[in-house]
Design goal:
There is one protein chain. With 230 residues, the chain is an alpha/beta fold. Helix 2 runs parallel beside helix 3 and helix 6 packs across helix 8. Helix content is 34%, strand content 19%. The radius of gyration is 16 Å and the shape is globular. An eight-stranded parallel beta sheet has the order 1-8-7-6-5-4-3-2. Strand 6, helix 5 and strand 7 form a beta-alpha-beta unit.
């Protein structure tokens, strides 16, 4: 397993959901060479969210083609049942949704036993209070800034209030990720609100030059981060 990126600093995680699956290894190699920090894998089951994306076999086939940290987001009803298959396939980290369980500690313990770092995700209308008791147990919080299920949705501005509420609750080694509707404009406001890990799909893979798009996105986020400190 690759080590979870605990060191402070901004991270960009391209989401393969927006990539051309017929050229997936090629696209991943391109963004890896351009400076991607993580690779975000959006897994959908057609039950918790109204879409189906891919299963462990895609992760398994992609793993030999990339040295990136595989940040796997399980948008599924039963993470306890399916997480192990993704980890065996090559996932380094698993994020599950707080909405799917009333025993999140059990899910966290199971994932720890499987040897991966753990994140928890919040849907747009789920309050921060839903995860407060488990914050000491996890490595990352993922704030959804669209409704999970489809790429290319419009950014939900209210997600920034949630980011601002979560940020002071986290320790320095814990990361705060945002996913959904990130483009060359919203990446600035998201970074200024306090995220340090940014998932982007169509803003990278939907461009003619994904590598150049990633570089531009990261430069904008870094500038916003520095301006916020100044």
């Amino acid at each position: 397993m690759r080590e979870f990126p605990r060191e402070p600093g901004l991270r960009i995680a391209p989401s393969i959901l927006s990539a051309d699956f017929g050229r997936l290894a090629e696209h991943v190699a391109e963004v890896e060479a351009a400076g991607a920090d993580l690779l975000h894998l959006d897994v959908m089951d057609g039950h918790f969210v109204p879409n189906i994306s891919f299963g462990p076999v895609v992760v398994e086939k992609l793993r030999p083609h990339s040295k990136l940290f595989f940040d796997t987001h399980l948008m599924i009803t039963d993470p306890l049942k399916h997480a192990e298959a993704f980890i065996r396939a090559g996932s380094d980290h698993i994020t599950f949704h707080i909405e799917v369980t009333d025993q999140p500690e059990r899910v966290i313990d199971h994932l720890r036993e499987l040897g991966v770092s753990v994140g928890v995700s919040l849907n747009p209308t789920t309050p921060v209070s839903a995860i407060e008791r488990i914050l000491p147990l996890i490595d990352m919080v993922l704030v959804m800034s669209v409704w999970p299920g489809f790429g290319g949705q419009e950014f939900i501005e209210g997600a920034l209030d949630k980011v601002r509420a979560v940020r002071p609750l986290l320790k320095p080694h814990q990361r705060l990720e945002i996913d959904g509707g990130i483009d060359f404009s919203t990446v600035v406001s998201a970074t200024q609100a306090g995220v340090d890990t940014i998932v982007a799909g169509s803003a990278i893979f939907g461009q003619a030059d994904p590598g150049a798009a990633l570089a531009r996105l990261k430069a904008l986020a870094m500038r916003a981060r520095e301006d916020g400190r100044g």
